[in-house]
Structures are given as structure tokens and as C-alpha cells.
Amino acid sequence: MRLAEMIKKMGPSEVELNIPAKNCYRMVVLGSSKVGKTAIVSRFLNGRFEDQYTPTIEDFHRKLYSIRGEVYQLDILDTSGNHPFPAMRRLSILTGDVFILVFSLDNRDSFEEVQRLKQQILETKSCLKNKTKEDTEVPLVVCGNKGDRDFYREVESREIEQLLGQDSKRCPYFEISAKKNSSLDEMFRALFTMAKLPNEMSPDLHRKVSVQYCDLLQKKTLKGKKLLKDPSGGGTGEAYGIVAPFARRPSVHSDLMYIREKAIRGGQAKEKERCVIS
């Protein structure tokens, strides 16, 4: 059975692509309700903007890439703005590799929530690395969304500068508009650069293809050969991305095992007791 058919039938979490662990990453999007987290994710995955608001419980997506002959997997976790289960939010932070913190420029409470989230991420990640939060490096960007609403804003630029302070290089800020798709590509490129990931993961730097081309990924992972042709027939296929349909979030048990292995790989096996999900 072809890989595309397997994915359509079984869902990508059940398909083994033999992607090296070093090429698998998770992007976590955090922020209050109604700040545009899902709109940013939608822009990232399919370039669309939905006007209708639907509250998010927790949405999980997966995108597969072939970049210069290497296959990558990026999982995207679009979290709830209400955080009804603090333990699940902590688990999301522990399993995340790159983070987008979103607030709305017309909502001061959402800005204050981003400040709390930034501190929580640094504190939570420090337990895995046995470092202080000041020394913990986390690929993280802060986004002030709804920049198209210039006529009304509750958060001024000077307050944002105060939030970031000397962390502006470690935690860059972008004023964006998911509705108008402004500054999003720049933000994603900066985030992936911080994480030492290929810039081609940014939506504007790779060719988007449909699930039928997942067979090309399978050929790459099984045979170790570079892709010779662009799926559209236009020449060498240096970078392209596929949104995997029916992606399912890994179980809590899988996430806990992932955290444990991550701590051990980082040489912090003795510290894993500190990473309590509670």
C-alpha cells in the first residue's frame, strides 16, 4: 500500500517514516483566549484566515518537510487560552521545542498573561537542563497580534520594551496581523533561526504540496537518496512541506516518556524527579 493511502486510512501518527529523532520538533503556541493563536497556526499551515471564532480546547497538527534531502517533522500544538488543566499546560511546555507567545494589542490582560507565560516557560525548562531560568536558552518569540487595529490599542510599545528589556535578542518581539498576514513570515524565520532549524520551514520558503507526495518522503527515508525532481516538475526539489491529515496528539504517557528520555539524553537523569507534572 502506498504511503499516501496509509496516511489517509490510518492517520500519520500510525505511519512510521523513520525520521531521526534529531529532526522531530514541537512548536507550542500559547496565549489568552481570542488573541489569534489559531489564526496564526492556520496561516502557517495553509495560508488562510478564518473570520469566525471557535474556542480552542487543544488542537494538534503535524507538518512534514523535505529540505535539501533531509526529512523533518514539526508538530504544532495550539493550546487553550483558558488553561483549565494546569498540569497539561506544564506538559505542553516540557515537550515543546519552540514557542510562540501571543497577546492582542487591544487587550491588556492578554499582555499580562504573556508575561506570566514567559516566566513559566523559563522556569519549567530550567528543570530539564539543571540551570537557572536566567541561563536557560529557549527558542521563543512574543507576538502582538491584531496590528491592523491601529485605531484602538491598550498595549503601547514602551510597555513591550519594558517586558523584553535585555531579553530582546533571546526573545524577539513582532507586531503582526494574522488577518492581513503581515510580519508572520519574518516571525517564523526568526524563530526557526533561534532554534537552529532550517529557515525553509517558514511558510514562504518552501513549496507546499499535497499528501500524495508523502511517497517521496518514504523513498527518502527508506533509501537515503535525495529527491531529484520537484513534485511540480519544475526541477530540483530543494524544500517542500506537507500538512499531514488526521494528525493525533501523542498520549500523555508518550509525552512523559519523551520528557524522561530528553532529560537522560541531556545528562540530567538524576534531575528528572524535579520535572513533576502537577
Beta-strand content: 15-25%
CATH top level? Alpha Beta
Mean pLDDT: 78
What value does the Rg take, in angstroms? Answer: 19 Å
Assign the structural class, choosing from mainly alpha, mainly beta, alpha/beta, alpha+beta, or little secondary structure. Answer: alpha/beta
Q: Count the E strands.
A: 8
Domains, number: 1
Largest sheet: 8 strands, mixed
Assign an overall shape. Answer: globular
What's the CATH superfamily, by name? P-loop containing nucleotide triphosphate hydrolases
Under the CATH scheme, the architecture is: 3-Layer(aba) Sandwich
CATH topology: Rossmann fold
Count of discrete alpha- or pi-helical segments spanning 4 or more residues: 8
Low-confidence stretches: 9-16, 221-236, 267-278
* Widest β-sheet, arrangement of strands: 6-5-4-1-3-2-8-7
Q: What percent of the residues sit in helical stretches (DSSP H or I)? A: 25-40%
Protein name: Ras related dexamethasone induced 1
Keywords: Cell membrane, GTP-binding, Lipoprotein, Membrane, Methylation, Nucleotide-binding, Prenylation
Subcellular location: Cell membrane
Main location: membrane
